[in-house]
Amino acid sequence: MAVLSGLIRVMEKAARKAGGRLRRDFGEVEHLQVSRKGPADFVSKADQISERTIYDELLAARPDWGFVLEEGGIIEGDPTKPRWIIDPLDGTSNFLHGIPHFAISIAAQEPKLDGSGWGDVIAAVIYQPITDETFWAEKTRGAWLHDGRLRVSARSRLPDALIATGIPFQGAGSPAEWSKIYNAIGPEVAGIRRFGAASLDLAWVAAGRYDGFWESGLKPWDTAAGCLIVREAGGFVSDFRGRSQPIHAEQVLAANDALHSKLHKLLAGALKA
Question: In what order do the strands lie in the sheet with 66-69?
Fold first, then answer.
């Protein structure tokens, strides 16, 4: 049974407090669908309130830490202390359309010892308010779903693998690049899924529900927590060139230890064509 550290307790408390409000607001979205104004403004406010709730909770707990916020931007803290990276509502389009698949993502990133920038993510929480699932990890302590240990899947054959992705939309991402990768990977695997929340895609790779995931054009707050959780569950995360960094956003390829190299070979070959 996992023993939650003080850091994870602070993060989970913030995520659950904001998640409770999102869960209540989500119940109102269906009614707003028929209004003349529509739910877009409502969802934007829900996003902002969630971020403010998380910010207030974490600031009270660690007043000298900085923030990287999806809505609020960068707020500097003590440069010798870690900083928070927060997505208060990942899966906004799902939320907007009444689809119960979205999450809160919180990561803690430490500064490099030489003061030259930011280093590893040391703690991560991804909370799904509708299913009440808390995926979490700490550097070197493994990855967990509540108090159950997470481990990436053991599938080693592409024909058995279920792979997740994010599809370019409204000017975000490259449809041509995505099509090349899909045409290379799709025929080789058991299925491709697009659920619309990158943080949960990564958490599900860590939980063995998916065997791999790729997407490009994301932001650090989409992936910071998920990258650590996958790695601590025994998986690999890289960019499309196979390079490993603490956080991947512009290019993300995550998979279990047996499939990452196979998926990377297909992906890299597709982009060279």
Answer: 73-75, 66-69, 83-90, 103-111, 118-128, 133-138, 142-145, 148-149
Q: What is the structure's pLDDT at 29?
A: 72
CB 150 within 8 A of CB 254: no
Taking the C-alpha atoms of residue 29 and residue 24, their distance in angstroms, rounded to an integer, is: 10
> What pTM does this model have?
0.94
Contact 163, 211 (CB under 8 A): yes
Element spanning 108, H or E? strand 103-111
Rounded CA gap, 144 and 148, in Å?
Answer: 5
Residue 71, token pair as written in the block: 């809505």
Give the residues across from 172 on adjacent strands.
169
DSSP state at residue 158: G
pLDDT tens track for 89-143? 999 889 888 899 999 999 999 999 888 899 999 999 999 999 999 999 999 999 9
| Bridge partner list, 128 | 133
Q: Give the H/E segment covering residue 67.
A: strand 66-69
Q: What is the mean pLDDT of residues 64-78?
A: 95
Per-residue confidence (pLDDT) for residue 132, from 0 to 100? 98
Joined together, the tokens standing for residue 111 give 């500064």
Residue 267: in which H helix or E strand, if any? helix 260-272
What integer best gives the mean pLDDT of the chain?
A: 92
CA torsion through residues 77, 143, 17, 25, sign: positive
